[in-house]
């Protein structure tokens, strides 16, 4: 399958993924087929102190890293672990997470993601280990 | 403030936290004042392959670790980083994350959390670094 | 191979491992076949501020986690990633890292390790993802 | 203190640090004052399977991240946690770790490091949280 075919398939898969949609996330790919995940501020994404919950930032990082790596495989990837580093509050700004592929091995992949606010500030970053399973992507 | 007063205050704070509520999470504390976060399975929590999204598991870990540490402080804690390890699929089972305090320092705290399914299986675990800010908890 | 045979084989393997020996580490196993790695304080293990270098603590954690997981496999394990959390200075005390097996899967294992000082203080902790390779252990 | 004065001071501090020297590491800074740590292959750095021990790679990452962040402060930095990702074996090649500063806050810094082999291959990477202490750098 070509990279562009995989991108189309992953965009369709994202539309089937209830959770990121429930959170209001939007997926796209840049010219290098790195995943970008956009998120507008919304009250239901906040923790008790009025800023975006760390779990939302973690979801952005997990999603951007996962889809960036998934472009390189025909199989389903299982997230093994990922780390989320929170650098500054989102403060009501729109957010975009961008993935970066570090390694696409036979059985394991490593990908990173950075979350920037609409004014360019680096809000958070993280990295993930993904296992290449024997399961085909759902169609 | 006594530990029990802090527990009451944190339970009220959780009710103000839009995101965990939006996801259907419920907070309680055990006798050692460790936070427990319960989550029932729901379609809107799933990724495209039909199991719970890694971002949901990360939110459980972040929340259980944060509230377990927060019992020890009068100030707001800022999550610096946390790692999420996914061990097996949730497979439609109810989940409970339980926090454990590792260290409550003057400026930094470390807490862990484990996520078990209703049948006792260990689904995920993680750990977090939290910074003690100069901000009081919101009331 | 029995667990006890594997323990014997791993103790022999440790003796072939130049680096931990170069650092003065000693390996043993407890009754549950968890690896323990002992280290006496020594000037050559210190950073420029006079306490044990973080890289030494990381080596203790990596080694205790790796050998604890390795007891469960006939194959060589490749460390994929590990996190090291430093909680307090060693301050000239003897150190012991003890591993704990979290999951021993077909292709991946997860193990943790805690580093205690001789007076029982928890100095550091960490966790590791290990990949099960197709390579047999060296004999 | 100017950045160049700090670089000079940190190079002197590295010379006092017994452990990296014991391992044969060499510190330098590039034009952007990012720390580079060089290491030649040596038998005493290896694990039982004949390649560089993960603890050595962790030490390279910790050291490159720490010195890259330390250029921005007059105070001693305490490493809070760091993660090490091992991507491929060193295979007898010379290694160089290069740090990158992500954030230099008032009380916390975040830095990353990549470890490349002499042929340019990315061998490992990692990131660290560092706490700014009230202690001056040793002179």
Characterise this structure.
With about 140 residues, chain A is an alpha+beta fold. Chain A is built from 3 helices and 6 strands; from the N terminus they run ααββαββββ. Chain A has a 6-stranded antiparallel sheet with strand order 1-2-4-5-6-3. The longest helix of chain A has 17 residues, at about 55-70. The radius of gyration of chain A is 14 Å and the shape is globular. Chains in contact: A-B, A-C, A-D, B-C, B-D, C-D. At the A-B interface, α1, α2, α3 and β3 of A face α1, α2, α3 and β3 of B.
Essential attributes:
six-stranded antiparallel beta sheet; 139 residues; homotetramer; alpha+beta
Taking the sheet with the most strands of chain A, its summary is: 6 strands, antiparallel
Number of strands of chain A: 6
Tell me what portion of residues of chain A adopts beta-strand conformation: 35-45%
* Overall shape of chain A: globular
How far the N terminus sits from the C terminus of chain A, by CA atoms, comes to 13 Å
Q: What is the mean predicted local confidence, pLDDT of chain A?
A: 94
- How large, in whole angstroms, is the Cα Rg of chain A? 14 Å
Measured by residues with Cβ under 8 Å of the partner chain's Cβ, the largest interface is: A-B, 40 and 40 residues
Q: Number of helical runs of chain A?
A: 3
Output the helix-strand order of chain A. HHEEHEEEE
| SSE class of chain A | alpha+beta
**Poorly predicted residue ranges of chain A:** none
Main-sheet strand order of chain A equals 1-2-4-5-6-3
Overall helicity of chain A: 25-40%
Oligomer state of the chains in this structure: homotetramer
